[in-house]
Amino acid sequence: MSCTSYSINGRLPHCHALGFSTLDLIIALLLLFLISQNRPSNPQNHNRHHRRLKLRSNFTFKATQKGHDPIPFDPIIASIERKREDKQWEKKHYKEFEGAPGEEAQPEWEDFMNAEDYLNDEERFNVTERLVVLFPKIDVDPVDGYVTELELTEWNLRSAEREVMHRTERDMESHDKNRDGLVSFKEYEPPTWVSNSGNGSFGYDMGWWKEEHFNASDADGDGYLNKTEFNDFLHPADSSNPKLIKWLCREEVRERDTDKDGKLNFKEFFHGLFDLVRTYDDEDHNSSHHSNAAMERPAQTMFSQLDKDGDGLLSDEELLPIIGKLHPSERYYAKQQADYIISQADADKDGRLSLAEMIENPYVFYSAIFTDEDEYEYGHDEFR
Ligand SMILES: *[C@@H]1O[C@H](CO)[C@@H](O)[C@H](O)[C@H]1NC(C)=O
Ligand SMILES: *[C@@H]1O[C@H](CO)[C@@H](O)[C@H](O)[C@H]1NC(C)=O
Ligand SMILES: *[C@@H]1O[C@H](CO)[C@@H](O)[C@H](O)[C@H]1NC(C)=O
Ligand SMILES: *[C@@H]1O[C@H](CO)[C@@H](O)[C@H](O)[C@H]1NC(C)=O
Ligand SMILES: *[C@@H]1O[C@H](CO)[C@@H](O)[C@H](O)[C@H]1NC(C)=O
Ligand SMILES: *[C@@H]1O[C@H](CO)[C@@H](O)[C@H](O)[C@H]1NC(C)=O
Ligand SMILES: [Ca+2]
Ligand SMILES: [Ca+2]
């Protein structure tokens, strides 16, 4: 072994009797370490940055009045996505509320990276095996070897409710300044567009996130919103609090009441509300081809049905029967997604799914989405 072969950066090798000095050894080890860090030793690791497979439903809701995210089918995917969302939220939250992100605001990406590896590994995350495990959890009412629309709707709904409650908890954390598990109206800071919107000559969403909305959500009237009440506040359409449902009707009237008499006349109903009800009822969303004139008669019929006291105007109470159609609930979306899944996977067209049908069509439940390095916002470049 010749000393010169260990010459580093033109330094003269310190050849001692035993070989080279401790300093040289340290430098050599350090160099080895640096080389091993820079070399893409693990091809899988390298690949991950370029092409990543994700499993999530590619289901998209038909255009109702407001968009809705697809509901995760598999609790494992849901929890992975939730974790990722939390990290994004933390990042944004700390930026907005505390200025520069501190040490503690730096997300721990490892969890998420491991999850990606896991999903990408077909042997570890085997969609067939997942469906076999999940099937008996969905087929419960009754247990008969088939998943019906109702069973799948309930499954989706529970998943959606978990998602919603999780977001509510996270939101609550940021508003509950004194950490007592309750949010007072004073603690609650409405989004900035609320205070900028003035008294809402533009109509839409004018009374949302204001004190009346808050008070209506406060079911027991103690001046604070607990977790249930805060969740209702954020999602009035899914609430069972009658005060809040009434507020929602009142708000609907206020937004449409162009002549400001506190009720809706036929014209105010026809231009706006009726379209929403029709869109909700019309599964195929195909009636936009109909002319206004053709729709006037059914609109008149519905109007007179709703106008219980026959004064030719709709009050907020008279809107109660259709408020669920103006503001679709989580159950509505859960059913829509169930219908879609069944329509895609129901090979023998008996209106329900057997385990075999589900296994034959795994990507109705798990859509593969390939991405090419579009994930910079998740901070993966920090790992280069
Ligand atoms: C979802 O993905 C599957 C398979 O990749 C495809 O057949 C289906 O058309 C997609 N659905 C939508 C709504 O994009
Ligand atoms: C997934 O599991 C099924 C059933 O256990 C098996 O037949 C199939 O080969 C597995 N797929 C992969 C990619 O390992
Ligand atoms: C909104 O209306 C209330 C009373 O109706 C009034 O006191 C308040 O100043 C108005 N705010 C704005 C921004 O116009
Ligand atoms: C909301 O309730 C509080 C009492 O808890 C009351 O002081 C306040 O005036 C109410 N605000 C509105 C807009 O109803
Ligand atoms: C919140 O308060 C309501 C009564 O307004 C009660 O029914 C509900 O159980 C409470 N929720 C929690 C999480 O304590
Ligand atoms: C939608 O409407 C068009 C034109 O009225 C019609 O040709 C088509 O068959 C309808 N589609 C469905 C799914 O009803
Ligand atoms: Ca069943
Ligand atoms: Ca309360």
From TrEMBL:
The chain crosses the membrane at residues 12-35. The keyword Iron does not apply. SMART domains: EFh. GO terms for cellular component: endoplasmic reticulum. PROSITE patterns: EF_HAND_1 (PS00018), EF_HAND_2 (PS50222). Residues 211-240, 294-329, 333-368 form the EF-hand domain. Keywords: Calcium, Membrane, Transmembrane, Transmembrane helix. InterPro entries: EF-hand-dom_pair, EF_Hand_1_Ca_BS, EF_hand_dom. GO terms for molecular function: calcium ion binding. It holds the Pfam family EF-hand_7. This is EF-hand domain-containing protein. It comes from Stephania cephalantha. The lineage of its organism: Eukaryota, Viridiplantae, Streptophyta, Embryophyta, Tracheophyta.
